[in-house]
Amino acid sequence: AQSVAQPEDQVNVAEGNPLTVKCTYSVSGNPYLFWYVQYPNRGLQFLLKYITGDNLVKGSYGFEAEFNKSQTSFHLKKPSALVSDSALYFCAVRDWADSWGKLQFGAGTQVVVTP
Amino acid sequence: EPEVTQTPSHQVTQMGQEVILRCVPISNHLYFYWYRQILGQKVEFLVSFYNNEISEKSEIFDDQFSVERPDGSNFTLKIRSTKLEDSAMYFCASSVDRTANQPQHFGDGTRLSIL
Predict the structure, then answer these.
(1) Which pLDDT does position A27 carry in this prediction?
(2) Residue A52 vs residue B2, higher pLDDT
(3) What homologous superfamily does CATH list for B5-114?
(4) Is the confidence at residue A53, as pLDDT, over 90?
(5) Which residues have C-beta within 8 Å of that of residue A18, sequence separation ≥ 6?
(6) Domain A3-114 in this protein, CATH class
(7) Least buried of A47, A57, B1, B52, by fewest C-beta within 10 Å?
(8) According to the model, what pLDDT value does residue A1 have?
(9) Structural domain boundaries of chain A?
(10) Cβ A43–B103 below 8 Å, yes or no?
(11) Where do the domains of chain B lie?
């Protein structure tokens, strides 16, 4: 069975500092990995995905994520955080063998960026 | 940019009553999903739907739940006899195909409150 862990309930960072949101996964085969962001009273917005290829993937709003197969991790990063990045971030995994695209989400990490 | 739209944004219903949550997926998308998020918990997969049939469903999606695409645009989730534990945020999602290259796009959700 596939699963995703986000070990931090909340990450606090000062504006302009690097932001990292951690995610580890467990799947039986090759993983498809995703990051979504949720702003208050909004749905989940797609940020980026890893399917295959380069371990460093770039996404929307200056975010990037690094796939590390040996550590089974897919941490989300942003070199310089903005106050507007404050939101709830979800990591999700899809098993390559799943034909219909079911996503398994982590518990979410609240990011708070202070001015 | 096209969006998935969900109505209503908030639904309050008495326990035991039927409720229908509505979604309009992105127009050229063919794969549809419902997820739910109980307050303080993970986003959980409920069901996927393609070609007017359920393609996959979770253990949560019992006989009280049903989905339908009654016309060319709407995608509905019906809960036949609501229970207190059905109180959650329900998200509809759609994707153009089922490959991992095509991310799922989410609506803003319907908050369902069962009294």
Answers:
(1) 86
(2) A52
(3) Immunoglobulins (2.60.40.10)
(4) no
(5) A77, A78, A79, A80, A81
(6) mainly beta
(7) B1
(8) 73
(9) 3-114
(10) no
(11) 5-114
